[in-house]
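Request: Could I get any protein with tokenized structure?
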Amino acid sequence: MGRDVNLNIKDGRGMTPIDYAKEEKEKEQRSKERKSNYTDIIELLESFERNPNETRIKLRIQLGFSGKIFFYFYFYFIFNYFIFNFFHFISISFKF
């Protein structure tokens, strides 16, 4: 009685109606994920606005930068960078 529907027909892009439905579903899921990410960002910014120091500490712990090792690594890197540039500048200036 009803009309026959051909779900295997392809358009100019080679996509079937099922492919379009899957594509729309994926777009919807990505949209929900983005909304979730924005919610997390808003919560983080509001937390930082209320108590910046506590938020920094929590972030450092979550990211693994809470210990002295990170500080020593950072200091070592910066110190070596400036020493290298200093000696490089001297060698260029005086051309030994």
Remarks:
- Helices lie at 17-50, 52-63, 68-94.
- The chain has three helices and no strands.
